[in-house]
Amino acid sequence: MADHNRRFARPPHNLHDAHRPVLHDPASLDLIVSCHSTRKLRRNLTLRYRNREY
Q1: What is the structure's pLDDT at 23?
Q2: CA 24 → CA 16, 17, 29, 43, distances in Å?
């Protein structure tokens, strides 16, 4: 790895760090990457989701 870095490493053109800040609450990641939808349970214990009945 050191040989690879010695041969191919280049300094950045811009020293500004453009990374977004780290999420402080790991639980918020679950909300970001999950899909939420509201459904109603019918009297016969079925529900409709994406035009299908379960």
Answers
A1: 67
A2: 22, 18, 10, 42
Cβ neighbours of 40 (radius 10 Å): 6
Residue 8: C-alpha distances to residues 14, 15, 36, 46, 50 (Å): 18, 18, 45, 60, 51
Taking phi over 0 as left and psi of -120 to 50 as alpha, with beta for the rest, 26 belongs to alpha
For 18-52, write each residue's pLDDT tens digit.
888 776 676 777 777 888 888 889 999 999 988 89
Token pair for residue 33?
């990457």
